[in-house]
Amino acid sequence: xxxxxxxxxxxxxxxxxxxxxxxxxxxxxxxxxxxxxxxxxxxxxxxxxxxxxxxxxxxxxxxxxxxxxxxxxxxxxxxxxxxxxxxxxxxxxxxxxxxxxxxxxxxxxxxxxxxxxxxxxxxxxxxxxxxxxxxxx
Length: 137
Prior knowledge:
Elements: H1 2-26, E1 36-38, H2 44-61, E2 64-78, E3 80-92, E4 100-110, E5 116-123, E6 133-134
Antiparallel strand pairs: 1-2, 2-3, 2-6, 3-4, 4-5
């Protein structure tokens, strides 16, 4: 009886140790294929993606957009890279004299040839905002 109890305790302890070790090894700062990872908003690739999105949307809408700040950034490794960005911008529509602030949720894709493509652009509130930087452009 005592031997069975000892064996049971040993297996339980091994189970706890192995599950803790697996959890520890699984936590990494490297991007995971298929999932978004937070990225510093000051990352040069993020700033480039944000500027590209604003410039592309301005052409598409025939309006004047200005990037005020990047509030949040995430990246997703795919066959290339997706950048999920929360941007603070202003827009001045043609014929108007005032700038209107907007919060934008956008996704920019960087393909394997290192060319950006604007995947989505929507006026939306962004959750989990991180400290922002102001664009230098």
